[in-house]
Specification:
The protein is mainly alpha-helical. Helix content is about 70%, strand content about 0%. It is flat and about 60 Å long.
Length: about 90
Protein backbone atom coordinates (compact mmCIF):
# COMPACT_ATOMS: atom_id res chain seq x y z
CA UNK A 1 0.00 0.00 0.00
CA UNK A 2 1.39 3.39 -0.98
CA UNK A 3 2.25 5.87 1.73
CA UNK A 4 -0.19 8.79 1.80
CA UNK A 5 1.03 12.15 3.02
CA UNK A 6 -0.92 15.16 4.13
CA UNK A 7 -0.91 18.22 1.87
CA UNK A 8 1.84 20.76 2.61
CA UNK A 9 -0.69 23.51 3.37
CA UNK A 10 -2.58 21.52 6.00
CA UNK A 11 -0.73 22.97 9.04
CA UNK A 12 -1.45 26.50 7.80
CA UNK A 13 -5.12 25.63 7.38
CA UNK A 14 -5.27 24.06 10.82
CA UNK A 15 -3.63 26.99 12.61
CA UNK A 16 -5.64 29.63 10.76
CA UNK A 17 -8.88 27.83 11.68
CA UNK A 18 -7.71 27.39 15.25
CA UNK A 19 -6.90 31.09 15.73
CA UNK A 20 -10.12 32.13 13.99
CA UNK A 21 -12.15 30.03 16.44
CA UNK A 22 -10.07 31.30 19.37
CA UNK A 23 -10.71 34.91 18.35
CA UNK A 24 -14.42 34.27 17.83
CA UNK A 25 -14.99 32.74 21.25
CA UNK A 26 -12.79 35.35 22.92
CA UNK A 27 -14.85 38.16 21.40
CA UNK A 28 -18.09 36.44 22.44
CA UNK A 29 -16.81 36.35 26.03
CA UNK A 30 -15.83 40.01 25.92
CA UNK A 31 -19.21 40.87 24.38
CA UNK A 32 -21.01 39.13 27.26
CA UNK A 33 -18.93 40.95 29.90
CA UNK A 34 -19.60 44.26 28.13
CA UNK A 35 -23.35 43.66 28.11
CA UNK A 36 -23.36 43.03 31.88
CA UNK A 37 -20.95 45.83 32.89
CA UNK A 38 -22.84 48.51 34.80
CA UNK A 39 -20.20 51.26 34.48
CA UNK A 40 -18.96 51.15 30.87
CA UNK A 41 -21.36 48.67 29.30
CA UNK A 42 -25.09 48.26 29.00
CA UNK A 43 -25.72 47.04 32.56
CA UNK A 44 -28.01 44.22 31.47
CA UNK A 45 -29.19 41.44 33.72
CA UNK A 46 -28.09 37.86 33.14
CA UNK A 47 -31.34 37.04 31.34
CA UNK A 48 -31.21 40.10 29.08
CA UNK A 49 -27.59 39.52 28.14
CA UNK A 50 -28.27 35.82 27.50
CA UNK A 51 -31.18 36.69 25.23
CA UNK A 52 -29.09 39.13 23.21
CA UNK A 53 -26.15 36.71 23.12
CA UNK A 54 -28.41 33.92 21.83
CA UNK A 55 -29.89 36.21 19.19
CA UNK A 56 -26.42 37.26 18.08
CA UNK A 57 -25.25 33.65 17.78
CA UNK A 58 -28.40 32.73 15.85
CA UNK A 59 -27.74 35.52 13.35
CA UNK A 60 -24.06 34.53 13.05
CA UNK A 61 -25.07 31.07 11.87
CA UNK A 62 -28.32 31.97 10.08
CA UNK A 63 -27.28 34.90 7.88
CA UNK A 64 -24.68 32.96 5.82
CA UNK A 65 -27.34 30.35 5.12
CA UNK A 66 -29.79 33.01 3.94
CA UNK A 67 -27.05 34.68 1.90
CA UNK A 68 -26.21 31.38 0.25
CA UNK A 69 -29.84 30.80 -0.64
CA UNK A 70 -30.12 34.29 -2.12
CA UNK A 71 -26.90 33.88 -4.07
CA UNK A 72 -27.99 30.54 -5.49
CA UNK A 73 -31.61 31.43 -6.24
CA UNK A 74 -31.65 35.13 -7.11
CA UNK A 75 -28.34 36.35 -8.51
CA UNK A 76 -27.44 33.23 -10.49
CA UNK A 77 -30.86 33.13 -12.10
CA UNK A 78 -30.67 36.83 -12.96
CA UNK A 79 -27.20 36.34 -14.45
CA UNK A 80 -25.60 38.86 -12.10
CA UNK A 81 -23.19 36.50 -10.40
CA UNK A 82 -19.50 37.25 -11.05
CA UNK A 83 -18.87 33.52 -11.50
CA UNK A 84 -21.30 33.37 -14.42
CA UNK A 85 -19.15 35.85 -16.37
CA UNK A 86 -15.90 33.92 -15.84
Amino acid sequence: MASQKHPKGLPFLFFSEMWERFGYYLMIGIFTFYLKDKVDGFGMTEKESSDLYGTFIAFVFLTPFIGGLLADRVWVIAGQSPLVDC
